[in-house]
Write a structure and sequence with these properties.
- Helix content is 4%, strand content 58%.
- By secondary structure, the chain is mainly beta.
- Among the domains are: 143 residues, no CATH class; 70 residues, Immunoglobulin-like, CATH 2.60.40.3110; 109 residues; 99 residues, Immunoglobulin-like (Sandwich), CATH 2.60.40.2610; 87 residues, Immunoglobulin-like.
- Pfam families: CooC_C, TcfC.
Length: 841
Amino acid sequence: MHLKGLNPGLKSLLASSMVSLLFPLSAAAETDKVQQIGSVIIPPAFGQALRDGMSVPLFIHLEGSTGTQDDQRIGNAWIWLDKGILRVRQIQLEEKEDNATLSEQPRNQLIALSDEAFNKDLQITLEDNAHLKLSLRQLLLQLVVKREALGTLLRPRSEDIGASSVDHLSSTLKYNLGIYNNQMRDGDNNTSSYLSLNSVTALREHHVALDGSLYGIGTSNQDSEIYKAMYERDFAGHRFAGGMLDTWNLQSLGPMTAISAGKIYGLSWGNYANSTVFDGTQSVTPVIAFLPAAGEVHITREGRLLSVQNFMMGNHEVDTRGLPYGIYDVEVEVIVNSKVISKRTQRVNKLFRQGHGAGAPLAWQIWGGSFHMDQWSGDGNETLPAKDSWLIGVSASGSINASSWAATGYSYDNNVVGETRITLPLSESISVNMQNMLASDSSWSAIGSLSATLPGGFSTVWVNQEKTQIGNELRRSSADNRAIGGSLNFSPLWSKLGTLSVSYNDDRRNNSHYYTGDYYQSLYTGKWGSLGMRAGVQRFNNSDSDGGLDKYIAFDFTLPLGNWFSAGMSHKKGYTLANLAVRKQFEEGSIRTIGANVSRAISGDTGDDKTLSGGAYAQFDTRYSSGTLNVNSGTDGYVNTNLTANGSIGWQGTNIAASGRTDGDAGIIFNTGLEDTGKLSARVNGRTFQLSGKRNYLPLSAYNRYEIELQNSKNSIDSFDIVTDRKSHFTLYPGNVAVITPEVKQMVTVSGRIRAEDGTLLANAQIKNHIGRTRTDDNGEFIMDIDKKHPTIDFSYGKNQSCEVVLELSQARGAVWVGDVVCSGLASYANSRPNGENNES
């Protein structure tokens, strides 16, 4: 056999195989006669190995390619010699992300092979585009394919997140507190308040959600209302929910504009599930590249290189997640061995959509139950009383090429309603959205909108039109509205120009309309900050009466260190105001933003309005709550004060913690055990969160996988050794609260000088502590890392004798010099060792 020309991997494989094959076998085997298969003479020992059966690697080889350097290993084959005939006993394929993919027919034929015989040329034909070829000289099996036999390695568009990582009962609670006070001009005042609570309790993927509010707390008008009390299980691509919820919380795929306010006691079932994650960042139309060997794919648009990606041999879908949204053409260049072997134009179709959106599979949902409709007041004196009815409906959504659609059909109170929504991109620059409703009581609605990007890509225009006619059953008002607006960025024409935004709204049913115009321009940007100018105008007309013209102009100064200042003038209600506003932002601390504003009338008749008005506010973000405090005095003389505070709580078993964040209805409790001043950071899916104190709660969005890594905080001089649970992985559903209890050692770098009780220096002595050891120098000085929980240094001498130094490190952080310390239990260092010898304990 010849080894020349083989790559190193195959040489190693051949060498290892031959060592085992040529190992001396039985005497009977060695006396077998020499056999020839194809053009290869088989030695007796090798022939016995073939009769016993052996494994050879299976490579895929593109027909027409020279050499084997570009072949990919795709599995193993078991071959054996049966009465002089070489056969394939079985083939096992290896699934790798970057492997070339076979089309369905040759793949199935390959897997189904069993005891198939090689012909005299050591080949097995699978189909016209693929055949197996055995090389006994190189001990490998090649699947030789034409391009047509290769399938396309597509990127998955959806994936189930899998089972929950939290096996214990847990719960999250979010709260929103608001307190309002209004001080009137005549001295009277009134106070109101509310507290909204949202709780989710879960056991693995099962959870119960409760949502309600308290109003007028502590007053005679105190009231409460439950908006949701629902069981839900959203798992493996299907969702079931049952219980009580209001119409605002009714989950459906399609539009439901004809359902009035009220409560629904029922259930829903469908495949519209958050547990299946759809990747809407890929192009709806796959961008495919064929590589005859390992190489690169370059994506360019209008001469600009957008992406460079590496692939193995085969048909591969290019990753388009990083490409801009829109519909446009790109040039796809395939480069192998520094040569462009193909170049063609392909279409990218990426449209931003909420939920499943364009390119998603068909989603459906069935829902219904008992519907309690609230009392309803329409136009004029029209009033309909509260009423009970049955409600049943079905919803579906999907996509066709670039367009997406949603439809809902439902019935209640002897009404049958059908609604549709279609989003259709007409081109790269123009998109149309249409929503329609038709009911059995002759009610109908048509809403259309169009958005367009003007040539040059620096301006946008949008148009909306709504026409709704309600019959005598549905609890909804008729409407006839139209609006048009746009944003024009003039800076591409001339860098010193700014952006103009305009809009016009016309409510023809109520005979009112208004238009607005705003212009912003940057005047200066430099090391001292930035200066910008804002100007705007608005005119409002109602029922043929002129509501007046309001206008303003202001100059905004953005200064370093989070400072902002604005000064300008405005005109409204017949008089002119001078306006001043300031704002200061802070990187750390409980108070994150403070601001104030003041306005004074400088011309015109203010009538009953006050000439001076203003206010102040502060935004806070503490460990347990975040919110805003506002105090405002208006031109009407009223003084309004309001406080809002938000936060969340998570618990699992005996673990409970709170946070000022309200990011989601799942979370993680970190039991770090740190002192109040200690800080760590948690890196969660690439985002960094600061942790402080013994216990922290981090709320997170449900239906997600999380990779968490604990690290030392960049905002602290403390140093920690995270012994266990440095990295964790969790899959969280609503209500799931995971607990991480790492073993954390707070490290302090301690330096000092150690002495015996008589004051003699422990020079060149080996000392140790809870986590390590070191040696003092000639002056008895040392430096070592110490765990604050075990602040003891030991020195051993003589026959099992020792002394120790107990350090006071409760307030120590980072590095500390402790000065002279005494090793208690050692009377004299001079007597602890033979003269002239260093201690080597």
